[in-house]
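ugh finaly. both done.
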Amino acid sequence: MEWLPKGETVIVQGVKIDGGMIYVGVRNRPGDSDRPQNALINQSLPVSGTARDPSGASMSYWPSYSEIEPRARRTYLEWLASERDDAEIGIGYVFLYFYGLEYRLFIEQAEAEFEEIIVEVRRLLSVYGGNNSFRSYAERLLDAAGFLTTKIDQRPPVAPPSYSLFEMPYDVRAYLGRKLLDGEILDADDALLWIVSSPAVQLRTPAIRCFDELRALWNVRFSKRFPNGLKVKPPKKKLSLDYQAASGRFNASISGKGDALPDVGALTAPINKLSGLLADCTSELDSYSRLLGRSPEAKGTIDAAALLPADLMEAPSANPLKEFAAKIALRLSERKSGWMPVRTLLEAIELEVPPSAKIPAATLNKLGALLDKLGLGFEPDRRLGSLPPGPDDIVVLFEAKGGVIDADGDSYRAAKTITEICALAAGADGEIAQEEIEHLKSEILSVPGLSVDERQRLFAYAKALCRNVPRHQPILKKLSKADEGTRETIARSAIDAVLADGRVETAEVKYIEQLFRSLGFPPEDAYAALHRGAAGSDEPIAVRPAAPESGAPVSPPPEAKSAQAASINHKKIERITKETAQVAGLLSEIFASEEEAIVQTPPRTANNGSLRFEGLDQQHGELLGYLLVNGEQSRPSFENESRRLQLLPDGAIETINEWGFDVIGEPILDVEADICILSDLVDEIRTLEKR
């Protein structure tokens, strides 16, 4: 019985075989049983001249060269003489060849040929791995070979298993056992290797499909949960390996470099400790995984990145979120905040820049969702009621702290209205000076009841308004065309805002003068109103239409410049807050009319318990329920139902999809042709329905 190394040639019954890696001879090795080894090719045995059995139908379950029919021998020899990769050949011939490889590896332990044999088994697995039986035996051989060849100080690849595990792979057990024996701390990758290699753990689809992202998220979360790493006490059981041959002819107790190491496969406590962390990380990738399942080409796009957990920004390894953050940082010259044209920002994150002057709401939603994950806020942000920017407008980016912005709260609405009024007035002459910007900040600081995050966002909004001066002019014209009652309310709100801190600065007089001119009121009325307010009067401010000026502008009365601050009237501030909240509604209509489409705001519902879907108002909830019950609807049918519920169809789609972003991380309506709920989200939406 002779082993022919790789590349050595032999001729058997007229068939020339060049590949080697086979046994030839007439009898077994000394000490073996009398029955010939299955893989031993006896050159004296007859071979058919023309008959063949390519399917191997004539062979038994455990074939042996000495026992198969001559036609099967002919077929086997010709397969050995080929590239040994005919996918149609009967799997019995592949096993017959495999029996020789496992004998050489585990019985003769030809260490110099270990790597060649392992490479050959992997090649066979790539061709014949579709056969479950062969795949199982081949993978067991590779696992056992790892025990012989593993470098126990080198971590095996951290990856999801390619097959169902019946036991933890030996190379993983040897590596982890060595670390435990030496008293070393397990890091995040060690812990992940352990849990994904455990037969007790079944990885869900998101963990397998998105393993790179899972690994990055795991590293962040593990470091927070175990800042000093994971210390595990080694078990008493020692690592050993018994290999049962595929041929059924031998069992081998194998000694390797893992001898005397503790067997981590005997431990369950670490798996129990880590399984919850793995489940949490996997669940947070559900939406991302669903998107890639539907559209694999979406990987690396903004749609996909916006669905990733924000914690990936802290991951040491590269990931889509960090890549987009780097692109934005490059445009900001590495600063954490700043401004840039919207067009530049969209190009940086690979979003299409529309040729028209209007950016689609869906594009702005994607932008907002991504920036949220990057820890960046931006203004103007339509999601918080600001006028959507155009492609050439300036957007202001800032490092958001993650605080809640109550955009519908009275204090925030009041402060935003003051910001808009003052910015419009300051830009009336077509340019805004630095001192005017500083005054805007002081106005924001003067409004009570705002959080730090709300003030930060309002500062950014003020800066955006000031940067986008050209857009002020048409808005100012529309302000001047508002009815007199509206203009008086705006003027009174601005005066009260200036006087809320109990004193009047020179710069504030200039702002009010500019605003009164924009509203069509004479500047002297502004001076009178400021004087009356500074003196402590809480009477309504009287304004009158401006008369054509024939000479120099009227200078403000000296008292207006030198008036001393009155004590702050808290009842007055409360009234200011209410009035500016009312003005916010008036201004929002003026701002929205510039794009000739008022964005619908879902009406507030006092009793959330009666809502069909939590977070979605009654009308939109009924519309979503209608689609849930009736399925796909034509555009006319959807529009009819929307109007019955007193909703604008396009606005309703936008509102429902925004709710979907908030609740499950992605839009839920498909509107490419007819209108329907995305099929893979129907069951999830049903679970969110209250009735």
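ok and the 2nd:
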Amino acid sequence: GTSVSDEGEGGNIFWCTADGQKLRRVATGFWNPFGVCLDRSGNVFAVDNDPDAMPPCRLLHVVEGGDYGYQFRYGRSGKHPFQSWNGQLAGTLPMMAGTGEGPCEVLSYHGEGLPEEYQGNLLVTSWADHRVERYRLARQGASFRAERLPFIQGGRDFRPVGLAAAPDGSIYFSDWVLANYELHGKGAVWRARPRQALPKATRTEPNLTPNSQEFLRKIEKLSTWADLVPVLQSEDPFVRHKAVRRLAQLPEVLQAQQRALPADPRLRLGILLAQRQGEPSNTAELAQSWLKDVDPEVRFLAAKWIADRQLRECKPAVLKMLDEPSLSVRLYQGLGAALARVSDQDVGEARMSEFYFKRITDADSSPEVRIAALRAVPANHKPMTLDLLEKLLHSPNGGLRREVIRVLQEHPDPGRFKTLGAIAAAADLDLELRAEALLGLASRGQEAAGSLLGFAVRGPAVLRVEALRGLAGLSLTPAQLAELSEANRSLEQLKEPLARVLGQSFVGERPLATDTAGWLKLLEGPADADAGRRVFFHPRLAGCSKCHRVDGRGNDVGPDLSAIGRTERRHLVESVLQPSSSVAPHYTAWRVATSDGQVRTGLLVRTYLDEYTYIDDKGEPFTLRTVDIAESQPARQSIMPERLVDGLTLQELRDLFAYLESRK
């Protein structure tokens, strides 16, 4: 027989002959790939259940040697920096679409028993969502995208599992019925067919082979670096994957490029990934050399290589790098995980939080090391007490004090507001630190109105602006409004923030959301990235941090924006003004109709048994039971508010974009 054994830990897809011979692994990086099928063109598709805290489940186009991002060694949640669910990590491949919960089988339909538009569709059984789903495929580069369409929706005791097509084209599917896994004897088998016989017609087989398949076959024959460069630089992850596999088969080309590394970081990533596939004898030496690269993504992949292979020879290099100043949170966490792996330690969130926390409390840690560790530890980590944070506030290092204030902004202890108020009132402190403290007070809502009012009517302008932001949307008495108006009417930079608090128009004439050129022109002018960060994290204004994370702060509902500044300004502006123009499958919102007639829209962020938790367009969670969901369809719009900019002044918008662009 044949055995396969290496780092493919977690879900895998294998191939063998009909008699069980010639076993090989086709692809890895799955959580639990229940169902696999082929279409008539030979394309392989799979459905993959989601990790504990990383919905949605996935519909995947499976290719030879593909890595789909999940490794169990880095935890069940699917949120470790070394895990990828939609191709976020270099070298991993994305999903075609998110599916319903508990997908158990996938079938490529080519029968004559269903209407012609079903030809080439993928049918998927969703155990937990009580339905059989239908996906229409369309070409997308070297792969596909998939659109979910209605097919069969059942009630609370309909839990489809297996799926098969009969010779007459009708569909059979098994039904487990109950939510438990006991052998209860209540299962059923159903058959789906048209009520009336369909007219005989010439059925045209849809051409589902991507246009680039011939191009991909040509990549397999490339033999020089010059030929490989353009495909390694491709925007298509499936093309890059093919190019890396080909490069790994050309050791002489690979070695030559290692001796004279190219300037383009995309090409260096390709070389690193190809070396990983080739299992060179000097693996540890190569991994350590990549740790010294100038590109953070290359360094991150080097840390993952060390962690995956447990390259213990690299431990001194990892320890040294952990003490470098200005590491990104992602790279810092990656290095921490690599250190744990080469030290045979657990890399779970609790264990890693303890490791980072010790670096905070270590008297020998530099301010830079403490800053990095503070960003890596959740603010609700139990040993992270107010007493400890207040002690750290006495540091002479301004950067460390700023980071402590940012921890206080997210800390669960209500006593933090007293500390933040004292910081805001300390006239001897830097104004930026005091403004950060006011940002933290704003999350207290109406209870902070009195304190914020005091800062809004006297003192430096930067604090007045921040206090006015915190007062937006709060209930103030006529006397308080009059006091605000009288104190700030003569200051031009306070005119728009004041008008917002007073309930007056402050937006002025602005271009249409689709007029990107007009907005780019309007946004020209002086901007303050530090002020823009406070707009980003402000709970009463943009509220970006309710869904997005930067440098370990905020929430991970939407994409991490720590390096969003690498995106060109035009794309940034379009993403904010037209958030629904391009939404990755991982972030598809759902329009959910419940049995009581309500309709809600949200992004699915967690599933537990029959309870689904969504985040709405205000960043607020809501939970529904699957038995109460009458219908669930992909929403046309993102949950990111379409008119987010309407609540911000022009200066706040300029500052916000300056902050986003600063995130390199």
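summary for the 2nd one i guess: The chain has a mean pLDDT of 92.
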